[in-house]
Structures are given as C-alpha cells and as structure tokens.
Write a structure and sequence with these properties.
The protein is mainly beta and 201 residues long. It is 9% helix and 69% strand. Strand 2 and strand 3 form a beta hairpin. Residues 1-24 form the signal peptide.
Length: 201
Amino acid sequence: MKKFLIQTISAAALVLFISSAASAQLSLGVQGGLAKSDVEDSKTIVGGGVNLRVFASPQFAIGVAGKLYADGSDYTLAGQTFETKGRLTPITGTLDYYFLDGPVRPYLGGDAGVYLSSYKAELNNRTVFESKTRSNFGAAPRLGVVFAFGNVGLQIEGIYHFVFGNQDHSGNTGSANNIDFESTSKFGGVNVGLIFGLGGK
C-alpha cells in the first residue's frame, strides 16, 4: 500500500509539473519544526522536511511533501543503557490557497497521504528490537503566513495531523476501505521554513 501511494503521488505530481511548467511557477520549500501529541504528558518532538509546489496562480499551489519526525529516550540502570527510537514519515500531496498576493501572504493549506512509522530499541548500542514499517492514511490542515522577499518567502505555519488507524488492525492500510476514521491519533505542531521560487509578485 505504501509503495502504491508513494508511486501514485509521485506520478500525479510529475504529470502536474510537466503539464504546468510552461505557465506556472515551480517552488522548493524546506522546513523545520516542533510537534506534540494530544496524549497527556507526551514529549515535544522535532522534525523537518521538503516540498515541491506548482503555483498554478499567484494564490493557489499544489504539490508533494515529505517530512520526518523523530523521537527517542535513554535509560541507564546498573551500568546498562537502554534506548528507544521512533520515526514518523508523512509523504503527502499538498494544497495551499493564499488569501493575498503581496509581501505578507496568509494562507490555508492541507496535506493528505501515507504516514510511515517505525520503532526500535537498543541495549548498549545493539539493536534488540526493530519493528516493521507501518503505514496509515493521514491528513493535516495547515494555517500560516508567508513573508515574501522577492522570489523567496519566509514561512511560519501551524499544522494539526490526523493519523487514522486500520480497520483490520494490520500494519498496513492496504486499501481505502481499510481506513478506520474512528480510530485516530492526533498531534499538532509549528513549522518555520523557506520557499524558493515563490509565486506571485
């Protein structure tokens, strides 16, 4: 499922970019940020990512994005060190609508796609457990502002992720019919980044 979703998103983006390149503005974005689950006492984790967008007009962009969030903990007892590491990688399609076309551009956006997750544990730097990569469908509304400096933009946004479970409780979604919209993990965050090739004036 994860390979199919990645291939589908990539193929759609390629077709879009090729068909739009003659008249649209291509852009590359890089981001870093913080995220925190809605689970009580959860840790704040760090993440970052890249995105490619086509500005079909100065106010509307469509694209693809990849992010990575990482978390870990260390425990030392009787001279033994136990470490846990987790990774969450959303690979999504993106839509953004900019309310203004000028030096300050507030916008509303959304992501949807596959969320890949994995986990491993180490004892004294030796792996004692490593999970298989799981895939789940997820979506994330975003609200932010871009400060435009010519063709480069400084971006600040808030994002809230919804990661849906699988109805058959398997490690992979498999198909749209297997998405369990009633079983949802949620986490919010703040991203800061740069956009190179900003559409508009």
